[in-house]
Records
---
Amino acid sequence: MPKREDAYEAVFNALAHPARRRVLLAVYFAGGELSAGDAAAMFAHAWQTTTRHLQVLEKAGLLRHERRGRNRIYRLERKRLELVRDWLSTFFRKP
Amino acid sequence: MPKREDAYEAVFNALAHPARRRVLLAVYFAGGELSAGDAAAMFAHAWQTTTRHLQVLEKAGLLRHERRGRNRIYRLERKRLELVRDWLSTFFRKP
DNA sequence: CAAATATTCAGCCGCGCGGCTGAATATCAC
DNA sequence: GTGATATTCAGCCGCGCGGCTGAATATTTG
């Protein structure tokens, strides 16, 4: 089983790229799910590039996908974002 | 003046490296300030490498330093971590 | 001032990230 | 089944990140 440290590593790495952060926000504002195509349409670069970003996000556990017709629908995994929130919370505890 | 986006970029990038996350935690658990040497001592790699990590953190606004004798004391900028907290909070709002 | 200490500056280098293109795969419409 | 649509897979490539070493820069101590 993967260690907690690896989880942090994957998640923080995933969040390090602006395109990936935008995707997460886009999924959220689209109501929690978004097709790969709609995600790719947000960017100037080739859609294959977005595909890879989506995979990074998914491997980090921040997204999950589901096939729906010929689209792939990506959904947020808020639980995974809690990992970051928890990491941060350390710094905001009363001393 | 720097844009908000650039701030996110710098901060998330800074947090992407495990050594830098460890440094931030170390500073916190050391009571809010830590010398560059003590930071470097935590790692197996050359201290010059830590120097650079500290600079990345400082340029991201997550640390500030102050000379004290021949040491450089690094202090946390919690304010900057709030940026990340705010970014995250979007996802945890009631729908 | 000279020597020791603490830390940074400058610059080299390998490797992975994140662009790209071209081909493959899955599903729907006819 | 054929073609169109949506998306991924495979692989190329440049550039920057993050290691390293060696030299330089404060600051304190004797």
---
Amino acid sequence: MSLRHALLGLLADGPASGYDLTRAFDGSIGRYAWQAGHSRIYPELAKMAEAGQVVVDETGPRGRKTYALTDDGHTELRRWMLHWPEQANVRDETVLRMFLVQSLEPEDARRLLEGIAAHCLAEIENLRPVMEADDAEHRPGDPLPFGRLAGEYGLRQYEAVHGWALWSLERLGAAEPAGTS
Amino acid sequence: MSLRHALLGLLADGPASGYDLTRAFDGSIGRYAWQAGHSRIYPELAKMAEAGQVVVDETGPRGRKTYALTDDGHTELRRWMLHWPEQANVRDETVLRMFLVQSLEPEDARRLLEGIAAHCLAEIENLRPVMEADDAEHRPGDPLPFGRLAGEYGLRQYEAVHGWALWSLERLGAAEPAGTS
DNA sequence: CCTCGACCTGTCCGCGTAGACATGTCAAGA
DNA sequence: TCTTGACATGTCTACGCGGACAGGTCGAGG
């Protein structure tokens, strides 16, 4: 149950409501790491409160309840972060498509890989300015902005996939020339 | 329902039994892309047969049934491969941990990142010889071995994460020196 | 004053999934 | 001949999860 640990990790940054957490999952964490809708988040927060890992910190207008980590919650988060299982849970549609590229006809595969490469380039050009702006504001000694490490991960991820797509195109071309002939 | 498409993709490589497919998921596809146990695979194959995407190709000893793709199955696979949704399903515990590194105390974060870097290095050194052996046997014009693209993906993936971990360590060190002073 | 849109919390249902349970066959080697 | 281990197929149950359903509050602007 990694949703619980995702929530613990997000709450470690400060108290938040179910609504806040739901919006957090709409951002990069939901795009690269783990998805969750509010319909899973509210019940899970309730269970975590029952288990003593979080407490209701304060109640605001519109029935807003912010949750805060307890010591138990902190301990559990740390335990989970430092204890890596042999085989982690992975379920990634994009990677699955990459594994199955070779099931396509060569022309289809080529078109697909070209699409992937172009998409990665576009994402890289979106991401890089944001990261560089972050860095420009950053002075040595400041804490890193939350998400800076994640952003860097995303950037390097796209660069790796881009390189892979180009390499694959080259190999495919070598194995079975089609555009030429 | 990506399990269905994973199965279609694997069957595109040739007929296989539920047992064969289960073992395929124990390999790299289950490690990087999508996991599935036999308890999901057998019912799904039955449903796919009902939907006309696969047929029982031949029956062997011990009740073995090999399934083969139909034209419908091929069409559906191709449709899924070429049609990329805006937001793909992702659920990756490892990436989640990376997103939450900053929730740890600096010393813990540093230890964790060092562990990640070391782990990546080890995997790279496992993978690279296998890929190079593949390449040595490969002559231009031969079809690529199934899994060669996937292996290259894994290799580049580990290299990217390795680079990210080193970069993060450096940034963390700059932001909050601990080993020194 | 009123309306609209963002805020905010929840439940319900059907399907996907993991792990345990159940059953039986065949081949190789002791 | 017997035992062991790989081969092989299935079901069952409890839980995770996404999308729809449901209801209510507050602030800003017309």
